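Before the break, one more example. Copy the sequence into your notebook; we will annotate it together after we see the structure.
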Amino acid sequence: RGDAGRSAEDFYAAGVRSYTGDGATKDYGKAVRLFHLAADKGHARAQGYIGLCYQAGEGTPEDHVKAAQYFRLAANQGHTEAQLNLAQFYFEGAGLPQDDDTAARCRHLAADEGKNVEAQHNLAQCYARGAGVLHDFVKALHYNRLAAAQGSAFAQCNIAQAYLHAEGVSQDFGEGARYHRLAA
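Here is what the structure looks like once it is written out:
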């Protein structure tokens, strides 16, 4: 069947099979070609995968500028992993100018709208350190609690530390110990 009749989802699914080797031979180059066909039709997950391929140099030469472009396309459609990847690129200055404020905004999107546990944990760290946002232990605790509720042991440890050191919450050694046990 010709490519003209295939949907973006068809190209994406075939790309994933080529990328992972699930039901097909692992072939990054073929995966990138298929992801491009889906991305050209506006498929956000395919755009995110292309970003990953450019970031890692899988099936295409490594290119952080192109990776950032594809992460932005997917992020603008609400793709939470792309929002988080774009945040990291802004934080590191990879493929675009280093910008803590924009990194924090991207993490907010993934944490608040996408409910992404990694974004919630990262955003908590931003608030705890004042990186791209105002230093705020209460907000750090809020995002750590969101991540902890999804099972993040890192966030649970951070909450324990907040209770032990009275950061955004009254000091409570019992609660600190309880969160350390949860994280174990």
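The chain has ten helices and no strands. The mean pLDDT is 93. Try to locate both features in your own notes.
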